[in-house]
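To: structure desk
From: M.T.
Subject: fold request, one chain
Message: Could you run this one when you get a chance? Sequence is below, nothing fancy, just the single chain.
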Amino acid sequence: MPNILTVQEEVHGRRLRATFAGFVAVALWSTLALLTAASGGVPPFQLVAMAFGLAFCLCLGKWLVRGEDIAAHLRQPAGAWALSVAGLFGFHFFYFLSLRAAPPVEANLINYTWPLLIVLFSGLLPGERLRWWHLAGVGMGLSGAVLLIAGGSGGAFVEGHAPEHFIGYAAAVCSALVWSTYSVANRRFAEVPTDAVGGFCGLTALLALLSHAVFEVTVWPDGAVQWLAVAALGLGPVGAAFFFWDYGTKH
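Reply: Done. Structure tokens follow.
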């Protein structure tokens, strides 16, 4: 029988690696706004399709070069496909819809309650429980978001409370719920290898392309800088970040 202390050390080490992977994902996402701005006037869904498509192609290239079984990477449980694609595509769909239908600042603040929701939802996982400091942190975070949205007395949220903005606010709530639910529920599929994210990126790119065809007019990057920005998105915040996040949330 394995030594109990050794097993505990292995579990602890895996959790440390997973936590570090989560930090890397967040660090990569911190470049998202900069690279998106540098990509010029490329419409959001087109940009998502291009970036996720590049991430899929790079992963596919790695499988081919290493002679790996591509079908095995794609042959994953239907639940894992549904959850991951709903998380990757659903988040971006509702996020961009919220920016179109509501003031961007308020929509972003509502959307970025997803870290707080992850803290709350994680209490539902086996072996996890919420402590008072978790709840205190969530309360302070939500209070800060409400204060910033309201802008004090008679703030921006009150002024922008027009009926046509409700769809945008609702979409922002949905984007936060989708990403936090995916991030917490992903642990159920810990046995699914992170390489499978390549396939999830491919299907997400296809759905984003269809959304682009319905909602947008194609605008290609103009010049080397904009093309490099799109490539950097596919390599980093809309590529590698999701592989790191997948490993982190599963372990």
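Reply (cont.): The chain has two domains: 1-76+192-251, 78-185. Let me know if you need anything else for the meeting.
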